[in-house]
Design a protein that fits this description.
This protein has 6 helices and no strands. By secondary structure, the protein is mostly helical. It has one domain. Helix 1 packs across helix 2 and helix 1 packs antiparallel against helix 3.
């Protein structure tokens, strides 16, 4: 949740921590949107522990994957970080839906 709050409140600082030197308006807006996503996901998973929370988390991660693929498509300068973000979210989604995890 802390990362999400950082993206919401100080997106340029957070982006700078991952190597973005000049963040244009669209990138800052996207960072804030993703920060909100992180905060909402953390709150939902805390509110609904167990399988229900994991299902919510998996759904949010799946939306994140789709948004990053859409964000990466139009511009090559965004492609690498957006695809990396999509890959991480995809792995988290798969982990949340994994049958061994579902049994707990």
């Amino acid at each position: 949740m802390a990362y999400g709050v950082a993206l919401l409140l100080k997106p340029r600082v957070a982006l700078g921590r991952v190597g973005v030197r000049r963040a244009h308006r669209a990138l800052v807006a996207t960072a804030r949107l993703l920060g909100a996503r992180n905060v909402v996901q953390a709150a939902a998973e805390a509110r609904f522990p167990g399988a229900r929370g994991r299902d919510l988390g998996a759904a949010v991660d799946a939306v994140h994957v789709a948004s990053m693929l859409a964000f990466a498509a139009p511009r090559s300068d965004r492609r690498r970080p957006a695809l990396a973000s999509a890959a991480v979210a995809g792995l988290l989604c798969a982990e949340e839906l994994h049958p061994l995890r579902r049994s707990t």
